[in-house]
Write a structure and sequence with these properties.
Elements: E1 25-26, E2 34-35, E3 39-41, H1 76-86, H2 102-108, E4 114-119, E5 126-133, H3 136-148, E6 152-156, E7 159-169, E8 175-185, E9 188-195, H4 202-210
Keywords: Signal
């Protein structure tokens, strides 16, 4: 499967005391630039630890097969909410990556079996999710990379959640919120990046559909 791409968005960071912050950026797909974060916060209950618990020591979880289509990920109330709030599913113009973490992105690009799904249109509001099948070693690599990057982590749904979020100022002086949620369980890794739309029920809804 072809590597995911990024959404054509352009932001400038919130002005801080040091003017040089305005020059920092990461590049999203489509040639636009995403600013360096000026404010990052993990979920309150998700505090990163210096030494994450090795995933292989946790209770074994059922493995899954890669879904045949995105329709298998979004069902019931979650599907209805997304169609009402941020349709359509898989607009070809949305090319945002499912993660901005370099190590995690490298692993996604390495050829692991994966399914990519997006919600929204090319704009400053949308979601990109990739479900990938990974080995125990790869899952531990992801967990270590996210923890090192400052993601908050917490157990849940027989797996592990990793979260981070940021706020910045757009070129139109509007506050933009963006972040990532990752979930590891068994042989599955769910990677999601969102911009201005990240409902808490999103990833748990996908988890429920995959391990129903």
């Amino acid at each position: 499967m072809s590597a995911p791409h990024r959404t054509a968005l352009r932001f400038v960071p919130i002005v801080a005391a040091v003017a040089l912050l305005a020059s920092g950026c990461a590049t999203p797909v489509g040639g636009a630039a995403t600013p360096a974060p000026t404010e990052t916060s993990a979920s309150p209950e998700a505090t990163p630890t210096a030494t994450p618990t090795p995933l292989e020591t946790r209770a074994p979880a059922a493995e899954i097969a890669l879904p045949a289509s995105c329709d298998e990920l979004f069902t019931g109330d979650l599907r209805a909410m997304l169609e009402a709030d941020i349709a359509p599913l898989n607009d070809p113009g949305v090319t945002m990556y499912s993660t901005e973490n370099a190590e995690a992105l490298t692993l996604l690009d390495s050829g692991v079996p994966n399914l990519r799904c997006t919600w929204g249109r090319p704009s400053d509001r949308g979601i990109a999710t990739t479900v990938a099948l990974v080995s125990d070693e790869q899952a531990q690599q992801i967990a270590d990379a996210l923890t090192t990057a400052g993601f908050g982590s917490e157990p849940g749904d027989d797996g592990e959640y990793f979260r981070t979020s940021q706020k910045m100022l757009s070129m139109d002086d509007e506050v933009v919120e963006l972040g990532e949620t990752h979930f590891l369980r068994g042989n599955a890794w769910i990677a999601t990046r969102w911009i201005n739309y990240g409902p808490e029920s999103y990833t748990p809804g996908i988890v429920a559909a995959l391990w129903q």
